[in-house]
Design goal:
By secondary structure, the chain is mainly α. It has 2 domains: 259 residues, no CATH class; 247 residues, no CATH class. The chain contains 24 helices and no strands.
Length: 522
Amino acid sequence: MTGVWRLVRLHVRSHWLVLVAPALLLAGLVIATASGVKDLYPTAEDRAVYAATMGASPASWAFNGRGIDLDRIGGIAAYEVGLAGQLAIPAVGLLLGIGLTRRLEESGVIELVTSGRVARTAVPLAALVVGIGSWLLFAKACEAGLYAMGFDRLGSQTYPSILALYGMAFTGIGLLAGQLSQGTRGAYGIGGLLAGAGFVTRAYVDGRQLRYVWASPMGWVAEAHPWGTWVWWPALSFIALIVVTSGAAVLVASRRDLGSGVLQQRPGRATATRVLSTASGLAWRLTRGSMIGWAVGALTWCVSLGAMTDEMGRIIAENPTLAEALGGDPTQIETVMSLVLAAAMASAAAVAGMSRLGVEEGDARLGLVLAGAVSRTRVWLAWTGVVAAFAVVTLMMCGLGSGVAQWLTGSSRDAVTRNLGAAIAYVPGVLLVTFVAALLVALSPRLRGLGWLPVGWALVVGLLGEALRLPQWSRDLSPFELVGRVPVEALDRTAWVWLAVAAMVACAAATVRFGSRSLTRG
């Protein structure tokens, strides 16, 4: 325990933004969703229709979880938070658990800190303490917002509490992953793999209406019945998971060497392949892990939604409130949802790829590459070319996968060409996000994190745009909304051209800037 409170004070002073901003953003997301749902389903009749359509569909259960207490507005709000909350909360939990341990160790901060009167086990313990504080802030902010909107007091307390325990459980998983892996990327890979496995398991159990709700922590939130009669076992299970993962992290930290991990990294090849000796090959080698992960997630999303097109269309058609809010042909709304989110995920793959270039520069490895015969412009164009091409290919594969899934489940063969055409409509938006991220890295590698802002907003608009009742001007801040809701609406060709022009301008500006400035290191 020596030095725990010193590290806690250090985290609060130097990482307060990481501790406060995600908590408040998540709380704002929950509160805004609840506010939108309250306006959409104000009467008992509206809520009954919702429970009989969205709440009774296996397809909806697979994505959002089991529909519980849908006769209450709080239950509908929790159900609408569903998919976004199931993925965003674990992401923040992993960010806290790994970012405050393995990332600091990899940057050399932990070595400096533990050279004084600070025990090595104090590192995960301090991260656990500040993580609890961050999730407590999230819970209290949610409680205040929900109660202020008129939701019942008990539900306004229990629902944020179970969400906070859910997030804290993934913070514990992040602490353990940070001790098991020898690097930050490996730790995020372990955490992301566990989160993905948990989501797939929950989706399978809920979609088939099986009884094994205990199989995944992502299903425990709904089973707590936070807006009805409270059930204790999910909360106790989350607490047990937090204790086990955090305790295991402390145990591993006490026994391993600084800079090492339980899972050792394998040494690479003794000599590079011919492809790796090129600038494009190097870019692909360093970015393929994260980009392929985003691509697999996007393709899985599109194929899954494509296979459920008929059922989703029926659900929307039977729910007048939802049909009026979404507008357009119910059978085509699914295509819009899947491709808009696929475009956002393809953009996320590109942002991850460009951010890796900033990491390489910050760690002085890019300077070693540029010390050879290859020019800076060549490296830059090769890197941005690989990232942009992969993002576009990912988007087109998603369009193809969605169309084929619709065709195989009963739609006409025209679904394939229609969805491919819709994917083409979102290409300029993906390229614009890609080159904006490139421009940020070209300005300074320290700005690379800002490239995630348009991706995050696009995901919010795509997942929760209707539930949040966002005004049109705010939706148009997402480049994927500007071209129109293709194929439900006709393509806005003017917006398509201007987005393409803006993407090319951003690419040119980034190339000029990167070629003219000095490297930050190396």
